[in-house]
Amino acid sequence: MKRFAYGRDPLCLAGCALYVLNRWALKPHLASSFLRGQFNDLLLIPCALPWVLWLQRKLGLRTHDAPPGAGEIAFHLVVWSVLFEVIGPHLMRVTGDPLDVLAYAVGAVLALGWWQRDGLRRQFQP
Question: Domains of the chain: which residue ranges?
Answer without folding.
Answer: 6-121
